[in-house]
Records
---
Amino acid sequence: MKPKYIIFFASVLLFPSFISAASDSFLVSPAHKELYVSAGEVLTFNIAITNQSDTARIFTIGAEDIEVDSVGEIALLSGDKSGYSLSSYLKAPLRSVEIGARQTASVPITIDLPESVILPGLYGAVTVSVAGGADSGLSGAGASLSSRIAVPVLVGTTQNLTSSGKVLAFGVASGDKLLSSGPVALVTTYSNSGDVHSKLSGKLVLKNSLGLTSDERVISSWFVLPDATRSRVDTIGSKFLIGRYSASLSLIDASGEVKGEEVVSFWVIPWKLLLIVLVGVLVIVKIVRIIRKK
């Protein structure tokens, strides 16, 4: 029997961040969790829900399938089923749980994958919503979605995931080849043409016109779902850059296979600073000439 590969990941990977100072906020963890389970077996793990408000609240546990929206980010299907449906296999013994003020509760979640599952990837999310309070004021390690926090779940049917895809584009995020200052925002667009999610990581290297390395940045792990295209933006370099630079991208998947090696060149001309320097030089020259005439 083939084992299953399951990953829980946080909003920094697939969802926009959400910060709230409201009194009825709450947190859900873990942010990441990797587990293996053989087909036909039942696996139970725990999620922790922290009530950050000053009153006891009732939290509802649910499950949804997920899809990729028009910009390549994850969205809940709100009851609909996807072609890679996982929600039917996510179960909680409790539909709701009451948690006291400033308290944390551990809630078991069961994954029951039948032996008949043949898809190499299944995708869904465990959702936690708060009852009897304002819909604003939610934050957490998972993704904030209106009155809910969703923890996306990725399931692969083999330990050795083999993804298929390529880098569609790599370049300066603004599209300009001439910039006025650093740091430089670089956008990477990746298309996953396979039927299992891609877990990607890599490195960015910035070099000057002499070929010397000016900066290096690690590209943290990020995920692209099957049949989806997703972009990410990373910044590199300091504020004070001048001259011609080249930025190189090296992208690999979870197996270490190289998924993309790209290079883009651009110029950084801090014209505002140069203008100030030029004006200063002209002023100094003018003063020197006046002094000499005297």
---
Amino acid sequence: MNSLCLRMNVWWWLSITVLVCLAPAQGWGAGPAAPTGPEAYRQEAKVLVKGPVVLGLVSGYYLQQQYIVGYKKSGVLGDSSDHVDVYLRTVLDAPLASGRELVVERMFPVYREWHGTGYLTSGIGTFALYDYSTHLRYACSIKRIEAAFTVNGRWDSNMNRNYVFDMEDLRRSGETAKSKEPIYGSSIAVDLWDFIVGRMR
């Protein structure tokens, strides 16, 4: 009996050893693989245009998603001096909230774009639009972003309807570009800035 138990224990340990050795080779239980090759580190920009308003979304392996808001010089506020302000109404899909949606309102300055096409924000991170604590509490994701612009008491709110950008439309239908070179940092690629500015013209 003791000999039988010993043989069974030996076989059990051999089986476990084989499984442990095979698991990495087969990818069993492995997490997502890190990107390989320069292509994986190229940033991507998606852009939608609604009248005088441009919304861009830039993402990359080392870059937290960055939203960029532009206001063309052809807009009714395009004759302003150095900047306008953008009011962003961010509607969140919040599965853990009682109403299933949350709304966060923020104001950001939009400074004159140096090519003279209008006004353009710097990159606005996701958690500048809404708090990280809100994300953790309600498992939020951005459903749509509404924009209105103001300067010196004047407004362009698309006749009180705001300029509405649905995130699904942006991801599905937005004009897309990728950086020419891999970007191994958290700055937006220069050629993607050029791509967004091109949509301002």
---
Amino acid sequence: MTRVSLAVCLVVLLGLVAPGCSKDWDKDAQTCMLEGRVLNSASKPIAGLKVIARLAQPVNGNDMPVKAIPRHDGVFTFDRLIPEAEYTIEPFLKDYKFSTSVSIKTGRKDTTTMLPQVMSIRWMQNKEGIIVDTYTELEWLPDQGKAFVWEDAAAHVKTLKAGGYSDWRLPIRYDLSMLFVNIAQNGKFHIDSLFQLGDCCVWSGESCDASSAKALTYIRGTYRCENLQATKRVLAVRGGKQ
């Protein structure tokens, strides 16, 4: 085969390969940066935490998530994102679940987009199902999956051994009020989705009189004295004031 023939073959071969390659995003040619900060609700960094950027929709066949490791002050930087693309920014820590995420669109090529505010992580759930409140440092269990009369609720939480702990209790009113959030989750209750609350009202451990106890509704965030034989949901807690 002559050199001219070989050159022609190479050109044809490259022409066949090139269309497939063109579907891939050219990371070297088109990149932009995204910078933000992630802290817990006590304004402290979370040890071992990483941050993941996920494309809301694939771009030219690319939908691979990108990872960033925050510095000691919680600041993180993604330096090779796709320009003008919609991303969801999520925290990641092995064996933990989070409900926190931020949606943002990146800027043009060679620009840096800043998250408009600190990504604040209030609640994080470990593999034992325990929800850690990074603001109050209380530890919670999600909704127990059914409603209880007050006496049965108080007895039930004392049998719990989640995480190897045996000091679970019914929360006081203040504990419950600290779980109320301004925006209803899933359009229903004003409590973080990690708690998986199945109904509006939750027993506190505080009685009103011999026949009633205080319960909080996560629709309005108010308390009522409810008959002890009424059935309400249970959120067990440990730590803090008894």
---
Amino acid sequence: MRDVASQWSGGDDTIRIKVSLTMLPKFRAGVTVLAVLSALDRRETYGYEIRREAHKKTRGVFTVNEGALYQLLRVLVRRGFVRVRQEEVGGRCRKYYRLTAAGRKEFSKLRHDWKNSRKVLDALLD
């Protein structure tokens, strides 16, 4: 495991803080969940549109990984947060996803938590 360590010394007191760089992938996974739920909160849509919307809204700064997206969608369906239906489009089967009432409730909680976290980070980093 890689760590970033910082040390502060003040006389006899030494504080050593280790911040694991493994936090960053977890943060990215959380952002992916928000991106997916946010897209589905607006309308029923399919995987490629979810990826495209996240890329567009973040002006290319954030891209939803395709493999992670479909794995996450399966988990959200299994947990009852998302419903899926299939439709034939251009000779191919396309899956459309939409939030359930439970999914909307969960998204509302997550959005509230993330907004509060952002306020804390903004205050600390300014």
